């Protein structure tokens, strides 16, 4: 399974599924499938999404689950104390 941050990034930008789908030229239902993990994006679609969000590919898609924001903050706090 490939994990993604599509929903998080979409919501952060204040976009509906339809807005995002229209912007990259796909069906809005595909965005829903991606967000729920019911569908793995093709390589072409994955790059379109990364380009749209202006992020490196690996910041949007990863084979390992993404750490939660709380976990990331805790890790950076521990690293800063060392």
From TrEMBL:
Signal peptide: none annotated. Residues 6-60 form the HTH cro/C1-type domain. It holds the Pfam family HTH_3. The keyword DNA-binding applies. Gene3D superfamilies: lambda repressor-like DNA-binding domains. InterPro entries: Cro/C1-type_HTH, Lambda_DNA-bd_dom_sf. Keywords: DNA-binding. One of its GO terms (molecular function) is DNA binding. It comes from the Bacteria. PROSITE patterns: HTH_CROC1. This is Transcriptional regulator.
